[in-house]
Design brief:
Length: 333
């Protein structure tokens, strides 16, 4: 009744922004991401009668029932597990990220993918990858994609019950090993508005949201094609444009949601200049101020060296297509 798993974070090339069903965590639009090598969550879960209540230790800090961060995330997820698989036992979860959680690098994606895989193993549920992606989805939407490595699409689906909203792998990591993302951390402070609250407010109030939904299918088609043809220009151009469209919906939410800081702006302008000079790279930004620069292996070091010189850049991490989430032997307790 005890198992451990490791899952990598992922960074979206076509973003997920907005839900059609909050309870079932169903998205308004499909999305595509790259699973990142080296930015992962390692999680151990144990179900046992000795636990009188669920307990979570995340990066050394204890969380339990009654705490908002717990109830809205892991607490909700465990209720789904108990309901769907008829489990009555309480559990202990220990999870560590090997990258700073506060840096806003999609830690919930890696965390819930690892938790879904560990729970499946601990309780011997026998779920396949598609089912695992749907279980991870109940913890955090972006976690749906972290079940697979390489390049992954999370299907929007159209069914009310969510049974057709799951992840599929577009290409394995070895299909396009030269693809790089240079992650530029412009602040280590935790973001003020979580994705969950931010997207709900956007759906409700941004006049741009309709345009987002009308154009996202075309971006999905282009990025899918770009990945399969290993067409870096097509993937990069589409991903950058898609990111700017998502941020346009955020900025025009009432009250406005502006995730960018001065460091974010510096890098955006630099990427545009470098591209003009012939260094091919594109940016993407999620619900936070960090910038991820898309490039190919041959340019990654040069770009990393350049961004390190920027006054607002606190950390730079180069990542490439990583592996599927998997069960591991090493337990954290
Ligand atoms: C901007 O998956 O964190 O990173 O489903 O409410 O847990 P919840 O939100 P979350 O949102 C991720 C939003 C994004 C885009 C993306 O990863 O696709």
């Amino acid at each position: 009744m005890k198992a451990s798993a490791i899952a990598n974070a992922n960074i979206a090339l076509v973003k997920y922004w907005g839900k059609r069903n909050k309870e079932l965590m169903l998205p308004n639009n499909g999305s595509i991401s790259m699973t990142t090598a080296g930015l992962n969550a390692h999680t151990t879960v144990e179900f046992d009668e000795k636990y009188k209540e669920d307990i979570l230790i995340l990066n050394g800090k204890e969380y339990k029932k009654g705490m908002e961060e717990y109830d809205d995330y892991v607490g909700k997820f465990l209720s789904v597990v108990r309901q769907n698989y008829d489990v009555n036992l309480r559990c202990k979860i220990v999870s560590n990220n090997n990258f700073p959680t506060a840096a806003g690098l999609a830690s919930s994606a890696a965390g819930f993918a690892a938790l879904a895989v560990a729970v499946n193993e601990a309780l011997q549920l026998g779920l396949d990858k598609k089912e695992l992606s749907m279980l991870a989805r109940r913890g955090s939407g972006s976690a749906t994609r972290s079940i697979y490595g390489g390049f992954v699409e999370w299907k929007r689906g159209s069914r009310e019950d969510g049974t057709d909203s799951y992840a599929e792998q577009i290409a394995k990591p070895e299909y396009w090993p030269e693809f790089r993302m240079v992650v530029c951390v412009t602040t280590k402070e935790a973001k003020k508005i979580k994705s969950r609250a931010g997207m709900a407010q956007t759906v409700k109030t941004s006049p741009m949201y309709k345009a987002w939904l009308e154009t996202v299918d075309e971006d999905l088609r282009a990025v899918r094609e770009g990945i399969l043809k290993r067409d870096f220009t097509l993937v990069g151009q589409t991903a950058e444009h898609n990111c700017l469209k998502m941020h346009a919906t955020m900025i025009t939410t009432k009250p406005s949601i502006i995730y960018w800081n001065a460091g974010t702006m510096d890098i955006i302008h630099a990427v545009l200049e470098w591209r003009d000079e012939g260094l091919e790279c594109y940016f993407t930004i999620d619900a936070g101020p960090q910038v991820k620069i898309l490039c190919l292996e041959k340019d990654a070091k040069e770009i990393a060296e350049r961004v390190k010189e920027f006054p607002h850049v606190e950390d730079v991490i180069i990542t490439y297509p990583g592996e599927d989430a998997k069960v591991v032997d090493k337990h954290l307790f």
